[in-house]
Amino acid sequence: MNIILLGPPGTGKGTIAQFIEKTFGLRQISSGDLLREQVKEKTTIGKKVEPIMKEGKLVPDEIILKLITRKVRQLGKTGFVLDGFPRNLEQAKLLDEMLKKEKIGIDIALEISTDEEVIVKRLSARRQCRKCGKIYGIDIKPEKEGVCDNCGGELFMREDDRPEVIKYRLQLYNERTQPLIDYYLEKEKLKSIDGNMHLEEIFDGVLKLLGNK
Ligand code: AMP
């Protein structure tokens, strides 16, 4: 099974992807994490995308497509859950072409729809582990503040989770990513879950939706 997660930043896509990974044995492919890895390793790509990401802008389509394609190929027959990609119509079409070549299909585009005030609250509380990538927030708190329960790594606040950048990212989502909802609706792949609920309830919704697949 291959899934695309859709929804504005702060809807819990990363956390939900990690839940799907654990529950259904699919692999999370997070475009943001792939890019942050490049920045951390100071690669040519990393140096190019770092200033763009700090401002919350979209990095060029060909860069992110390259990283996603490499990851999909690495996974072979293992199913995946795409988190953060595609983010605009061009990327959705590029993804279709790439998957066609790889003889892979998407089963579900799962939309997590969440109100803006809930998103802002969540993003301001979000922290991520520098070492293993685990995400913490309003619903999932670490036992010891600033320290990852999983691996003891340091928790950090993303630079693009600052309030002024959050506002810009939400606007970008509404303009560029929202049209993807119709794109996958027309392809009869779209399913939606209310992202305003408590995380446990969202997980239940995901289980019901994907469990029958
Ligand atoms: P995320 O962790 O998904 O919120 O992504 C963090 C940042 O990485 C975004 O604000 C963009 O700068 C960049 N990014 C992630 N995914 C994409 C994508 N599919 N297309 C362009 N830029 C992306």
UniProtKB/TrEMBL annotation:
GO terms for molecular function: AMP kinase activity; ATP binding; zinc ion binding. Zn(2+) binds at residues 129, 132, 148, 151. AMP binds at residues 31, 36, 57-59, 84-87, 91, 158, 169. SUPFAM superfamilies: P-loop containing nucleoside triphosphate hydrolases (SSF52540). Keywords: ATP-binding, Cytoplasm, Kinase, Metal-binding, Nucleotide biosynthesis, Nucleotide-binding, Transferase, Zinc. Signal peptide: none annotated. InterPro entries: Adenyl_kin_sub, Adenylat/UMP-CMP_kin, Adenylat_kinase_CS, Adenylate_kinase_lid-dom, P-loop_NTPase. PROSITE patterns: ADENYLATE_KINASE. It catalyses: AMP + ATP = 2 ADP. Monomer. Consists of three domains, a large central CORE domain and two small peripheral domains, NMPbind and LID, which undergo movements during catalysis. The LID domain closes over the site of phosphoryl transfer upon ATP binding. Assembling and dissambling the active center during each catalytic cycle provides an effective means to prevent ATP hydrolysis. Some bacteria have evolved a zinc-coordinating structure that stabilizes the LID domain. This is Adenylate kinase.
